[in-house]
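G., the chain you wanted modeled:
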Amino acid sequence: MDITIEALQAYLADRYGGWGNEQGMFMKLVEEMGEVAEVLNKRSGRKASQEDDLQEQLGIELVDMIHYIVAIAALNNIDLTTLMLQKDKAASIKYNHKTNLEAFLLNRK
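Predicted structure as tokens:
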């Protein structure tokens, strides 16, 4: 099943609408960022690990970060899809990339 950013934003707006707040979501995001850092430290050997599958754990923590990033956008009615395309297009021009995200997506179809 494919998940679009637009669908995830709508889901999280519904889930958190009316009671969620951006400050609380940001604090959760920072907490999850620390958990990603911990997994990366374990993977690099800078921190001891008893866990078997650090790859899966990294994925879980990254998903948590995405959740809170998109939730903050949803609570603020920010269209991440449009902004992501605009920001990538500007960066592609600035850094003279051969393609941009929009062109990449169109060429995949």
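The CA atoms of residues 5 and 57 lie 22 Å apart.

Shout if anything looks off.
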